[in-house]
Amino acid sequence: MRRIVILLLLAAASASAQQPVLRWGGDAEGGAPFVEADPNDPAVLRGFDVEVAEQIAKGLGRRPEFHQVGFNDIDQSVQRGDFEIGMSGVEDTPARRRMMAATIPYFEFHEVLTMRAEDRGKFPTMASLRGRRVGTLGGTIAYERVLAAEKSDGVICISYDDDVHPYADLRAGRLDAVLLDNIIAARSMRRVPGLWTESRPVATSHYIGVLATGNTKLRDEINDVLRERMRDGTLERIYRKWGIWDSYQPAFFAGVLNADASAKKAAEGGGPAQNLDVVVRYIPALLRASLITIVLSCAAMGLAVFVGVFIASGRVYGSAPVRALLTIYVEVVRGTPVLLQLFVLYYGLSSVIRLPAFLAALLGLGLNYAAYESEIYRGALEAVGRGQLEAARTLGLTEGQVLRLVRGPQAFRIALAPMTNDFVALLKDSSLVSVITVIELTKQTSIFAANIGSWVIPGILCAALYLVLSLPLSRLAGRLENRWKAATE
Amino acid sequence: MSGILSIADLRLRRGEREILRGVNASVSSGELVALMGLSGGGKTTVLRCVAALETFEDGLIDVGGVVLRPGPPPPRGTIRDLRTRVGMVFQLHYLFEHLSVMENVTLAPVHVAHKPRPDAERRALELLETLGVAHRRNALPRELSGGEAQRVAIARAMAMEPPLLLMDEPTASLDPARRGELGETLVQLTATGRTLVVTTHDDDFARDFATRVIILAEGEVVEEGDPRQVLTNPKHEATKRLLQSARSVADG
């Protein structure tokens, strides 16, 4: 993944080294205008979230210290104590307010629909997108909104792990619209030509900072700093500098300063009953995701076996150039990460051939595992005794018949147990395809976890489902192994 | 009696080693020839050359009109013709491990001779009955004793009705009683017009059942003739050594 690893990014002057630090976390992969590495000096961070964090630290009499964290892991990381406050486009959701100590909102944004310029005005609302494919960033309010529209308006929800590929896929025709924050939409329109964004917002929300559950004292101090900076125009100055100040902000600021309505909303929250509700609500989605996992794994294994048999036969029986070619294939596929192969298949080749996500996932996993399967089959073919082959030849069998009737069946018995083990491995590796927007069991679980703000229940459910899928296979492998072992005694 | 196998000046080397140094032999239809010699004398190699499992450097092999020449493996057509004339029973039997006894015997008749399966099975059962292993027809090779496996291997080769059957060390894994039974079986086969070439260490077996014995030493034929004469009054030094070693050890 194109993850920029940045450790300590705020260059601290030696003078301020004595000051206490405010450890804050964000995702520099999120990029401008939130948090990004300065193109001129990647060790320096910039962005409006960076400047807001600086203001908070200044107000507290501390020195800001940045910690890189994946966008989806900000909550977990704060709870673990990796840093005191997480903030880089962190959205204000009921779940966050329930699970974490959340600050007052400091910016108001809107979920807006972006479409191809030629579709301008065609999809003003979610309802107008019935039967269409709508992309968004997984684990966000926008994602929840699209998911809701899947039920109510019949749109097709496509979830991404980042906010760059949805717009690229929109341009490429894989999507009909993207629903995301207006800031991200505006940024993407600058990057990707030929897009148009509907100005009427689909939903409104806010960015907040999150602190660990018990850390309310620091939270309250931070809230005071934020209110002060709203009042004295510092935040307005920062937002204007980054081009995100708009007509909605003055009213939003006024609302926060007067009633602090959002903060009150925090107290309302929901009890454990609602938590259980969410769990029940997610179970059908998890089961559906399990089905995708098993269908994808079975189909990919089928492809791997089919291609693997050909590669193995070619490597045992083929001419020297064929053998060399197949050896190169096997070594390249085994020597590079399957994640990279999936990216190349789905995004890299999209200008040549636009594969649907599921097909790309199937091909990626299938062709990758074919290399491993072919090695098993090659070993198995070579393990069949020469005497068996000579006996078959003296009976008049052609080489093709020897392979089909004697060598192949015997090799298959040798290969069966390792093949079953590979199938179990494939079942688990299928979780990698979430990077190309296929929502399978692991991805669905992480969405679930992000939504309820905890990994405990989703993690247990997910593990249980994988075990239900893989245990029968492992047992089968064990039994076959014993059976053939007995056979050769 | 007409010649079914003739071997002329057969030479074979593997690396530095000269394994066959000009073997000459001819076998007539209906004979049971015992090919004898010390280990490493080249007996098995001669059989493997006749079955086209080995290539050779010089000489000529004629199997009922199919001619094998020195150099690269013979073309497919020659191999196909050869297979209809020669069958082979290996010392270690090499029954197909994944197939039952019946399937072992019917594999070639069904897939090579394209016989209907019921006909192939009927014939296989006859062969297995003649050889006394019909009751094991559903067993897998790993469930058979050495003697049973050997008889199944003979049935498998016989199912293709080759006029010439080569057997590599059939007596090696048998006790004396079983050796007698095998001898009777082979004599019966020659009575129905088959020709057998059998490599063996066992001079008693050769004396009792073979119509002719050929002694091979260091890649050459050193003596041949009536088994009783050759093995009772050996003329060649190698034959004497062979008989001595057969008295002390009977190895494979």
Topology diagram in text:
The complex is a heterodimer of chains A (489) and B (252).
Chain A: E1 21-26, E2 36-38, E3 41-46, H1 48-59, E4 63-68, H2 74-80, E5 85-86, H3 94-99, E6 101-102, E7 107-116, E8 133-137, H4 141-152, E9 156-160, H5 165-172, E10 177-181, H6 182-191, E11 195-197, E12 203-207, E13 210-211, H7 216-231, H8 234-241, H9 248-258, H10 261-268, H11 272-317, H12 320-335, H13 338-348, H14 357-383, H15 386-394, H16 399-429, H17 441-452, H18 456-487
Parallel strand pairs in A: 1-4, 1-5, 8-9, 8-10
Antiparallel strand pairs in A: 2-3, 5-13, 6-13, 7-10, 7-11, 7-12
Chain B: E1 3-14, E2 17-28, E3 32-36, H1 43-50, E4 58-63, E5 66-68, H2 76-83, E6 86-89, H3 101-111, H4 117-130, H5 146-158, E7 164-168, H6 176-191, E8 195-200, H7 203-209, E9 212-217, E10 220-225, H8 227-232, H9 237-248
Parallel strand pairs in B: 3-8, 3-9, 6-7, 7-8
Antiparallel strand pairs in B: 1-2, 1-4, 4-5, 9-10
Helix pairs in contact in B: 3-4, 3-5
What is this structure, in a nutshell?
The complex is a heterodimer of chains A (489) and B (252). Chain A is of the alpha/beta class.
User: What are the low-pLDDT stretches of chain A, counting only 5+ consecutive residues below 50?
Assistant: 1-16, 261-273
The chain pair with the largest interface is: A-B, 20 and 25 residues
Helix coverage percent of chain B: 25-40%
Tell me the number of structural domains of chain A.
3
Number of strands of chain A: 13
Computed over alpha carbons, the radius of gyration of chain A is 27 Å
User: Into which percentage range does the β-strand content of chain B fall?
Assistant: 25-35%
What's the CATH C level of the domain at 1-85 and 164-170 and 201-252 in chain B? Alpha Beta
Oligomer: heterodimer
Structural class of chain A: alpha/beta
CATH topology of the domain at 1-85 and 164-170 and 201-252 in chain B: Rossmann fold
Structural class of chain B: alpha/beta
Write down the overall geometry of chain B: globular
Arrangement of strands in the largest sheet of chain B: 6-7-8-3-9-10
For the termini of chain A, the CA-CA separation is 49 Å
Spans of at least 5 consecutive residues with low confidence of chain B: none
